[in-house]
Design a protein that fits this description.
Layout (H helix, E strand, L loop, with lengths): L1 E4 L1 E2 L10 E4 L8 E2 L4 E4 L6 E6 L8 E4 L6 E3 L17
Parallel strand pairs: 1-5, 3-7, 4-6
Antiparallel strand pairs: 2-8, 5-6, 7-8
C-alpha cells in the first residue's frame, strides 16, 4: 500500500460536477475501498481515504479534513476514459 498526500484546493478551483465530503470524525476515514492506496491530508497528514483505487480518487472528489479543516483534492487524477469513449474535458 502506498500513502499519497492529497493537495490543497486552489482558490477558484471548482469541478463542474464534483462535491466535498466532510470528515466528521478525524479518527475515521471518509472513504474505504479495496484498492492499494491510502490518501492523507496535505496539511496535517490525517487519513482521509483508505484502500482506494486511483480511478476512484479524481479531481471531482474533495475532502474537508476533520482535524485541520483543509479542503483536499487528489494530487493525481485517476480518471480513465472507457475504451472508445470520449476524453474528459477540463
Amino acid at each position: 500500500m502506498a500513502t499519497i498526500a492529497m493537495r490543497q484546493v486552489r482558490e477558484g478551483e471548482v469541478p463542474r460536477d464534483g462535491g466535498t465530503a466532510i470528515q466528521d470524525d478525524p479518527d475515521r476515514p471518509v472513504f474505504r475501498g479495496n484498492g492499494p492506496d491510502d490518501y492523507v491530508c496535505v496539511s496535517c497528514g490525517n487519513l482521509l481515504a483508505t484502500a482506494m483505487n486511483p480511478e476512484q480518487m479524481t479531481r471531482k472528489v474533495r475532502v474537508r479534513c476533520g482535524r485541520c479543516s483543509t479542503v483536499n483534492v487528489s494530487a493525481i487524477d485517476g480518471y480513465v476514459a472507457p475504451s472508445g469513449g470520449p476524453k474528459r474535458q477540463d
